[in-house]
Input
Amino acid sequence: MAYAVSEILDNTKGEDIVILYLGEVCSFTDYFVICNGGSERTLNALADAVKTKIKKRYELRAMKVEGEAQSGWILLDYGDVILHLFSPELRDYYRLEELWREGQILVHIQ
Output
């Protein structure tokens, strides 16, 4: 499903998409998918596209949704896959790839 999410993001103008495998180092999820959106409108469009297409393809809804586009961060928690949508500034601030550097980067779409 992480690959499906990254494909949806890529097709919806997501930027700097990373799939980070955390199965060996994390107890609450297997994958982070991290993506930038250049504006509030883009962040909302990315979140909406993932919600709609994952529901249709896998019949799943996010167990938890946090944040909002105005804050520069949206999280969609699907259990085994957690999607982080960031403004470029907040992604630089939180640096999840560095924080979880023990994980393995499986995909990086620039």
